[in-house]
Amino acid sequence: MFGDMMGMMGKLKETQKKVEDTKKRMDTVLVDESSNDGKLKVTLTANRTIKSIEIADDLLHDKEQLEDYLILTLNKAIDKATNINEAELAAVAKDGMPNIPGLDMFK
């Protein structure tokens, strides 16, 4: 019994390390998003850190339009980054969870 418990604890620690490594790796995964017309381009990490924003010159003359472009494009990029982040972390967590009867939250 204690051997099983120690094995599970070891597996949980190993999984925790993999989760931390995956979180660090998400800083290197880049997500690109553009407005439909290509006038605004943003790049984020999968951890949702903005890395770059490119704005077409004609958007600089209309503050309200630029704000709309930023909101729409950044929200799309954040959604993409969040989906990648959650999928990667869920895969690591599911793979590393010990088989505990009745505990199937990652299935």
Report on the structure:
The structure is a single chain. With 107 residues, this protein is α+β, with helices and mostly antiparallel strands. It has 2 helices and 3 strands; from the N terminus they run αβββα. The longest helix has 34 residues. It is rod-shaped and about 65 Å long. Its main location: cytoplasm. Binds to DNA and alters its conformation. May be involved in regulation of gene expression, nucleoid organization and DNA protection.
Order of helices and strands: HEEEH
Head-to-tail CA distance between termini: 25 Å
| pLDDT < 50 stretches | none
Helix content range of the residues, please?
40-55%
Q: Treating each run of at least 4 consecutive H or I residues as one helix, how many helices?
A: 2
Describe the main β-sheet briefly.
3 strands, antiparallel
* Beta-strand content bin: 15-25%
Provide the structure class.
alpha+beta
Radius of gyration: 20 Å
Mean pLDDT: 86
- What's the total count of β strands? 3
**What does the overall shape look like?**
rod-shaped
Spatial arrangement of strands, main beta sheet: 1-2-3
Q: What is the assembly state of the chains in this entry?
A: single chain
